[in-house]
Design brief:
CATH class of the largest domain: Alpha Beta
Low-confidence stretches: none
Distance between the termini: 54 Å
Shape: globular
CATH topology of the largest domain: Pseudouridine synthase
Structural class: alpha+beta
Helix content: 10-25%
Strand content: 25-35%
Number of strands: 15
CATH architecture of the largest domain: 2-Layer Sandwich
Largest sheet: 9 strands, mixed
CATH superfamily of the largest domain: Pseudouridine synthase
Radius of gyration: 21 Å
Number of domains: 3
Amino acid sequence: MSESRRVVVDETTAGSRLDRLLSDLFEDHSRSSFARLIEQGHVLVDEAPATKVSLRVEAGQVIEVRFPPPVPVGLTSQDIPITVLFDDPDIVVLDKPAGLVVHPAAGHPDQTLVNALLFHVRDLSGIGGELRPGIVHRLDKDTSGVMIIAKNDAAHRKLTAEWGSDRVRKEYLSLVYGTPSVSAGTIDAPIGRDPRERKRMNVVPGGRAAITDYEVLERYPHVSLLRCLIRTGRTHQIRVHMKHLGHPIVGDPVYSGPQWRGIPDRKVQRIVQSMTRQALHAWRITFPHPRTGTSMTIEAPIAADLLAVLEALRA
């Protein structure tokens, strides 16, 4: 099934290259993939096919991207262990382990969550496409925690339609360097591609609206545990917002690096250093069941590696 997306160019993005603008707006696709779509005639500007990737867009122009149906790639089912938190005829809710990529992509043709789902779950929804059957939302490879998978097309459509509404609450736990001066607050800062390093995201003028609520749950020497609730779903949102706040996530190789080296307490330093991936866990999600509309809340136990660090800090 093909998909179409439309956007109207505003004053903040006028003058941008067409391929760069599209990769900033639709973060689940790369700039090179948009270049191919433009060359193949799948991108329209004011209803006419765009003629070149370097086209400078103007305010008020309507851009439409027509994503062609994914080409079948013969995905195989693989017996990869997954933990099921809830299962019924419409959805399955999983506890995704850190280190598991959600769907096949360049560099990860298999050994993904999708390959595991094809083994463990029958009749997955196809509306997400050949490469993303049943996938309603995603977590970064090294983020652990709760994920919802649709088992049929109707459930997929309902969940997708509700995803940006107030009926869906996505709560995360994150271990960050330092302690915010305000114990609870809201970060309202737009996120887009870092103009100097395109593989990273950053808070940038003209970026997409991004809002994160946070609350300090536990304070330790040099680090603290936060509960984060995201009201938008931007790429790397919590990771970027925590860095913007001045308290990047422990173990994040992109946005914090080895900051444990600056901790003067050698014991705490060793504990924090033992966290070898970003200390971010999708803890709890509240959502309306796609068939009944009843609000459900499902929680994923804190991942073992993060829990071990927290227990060591508490001790």
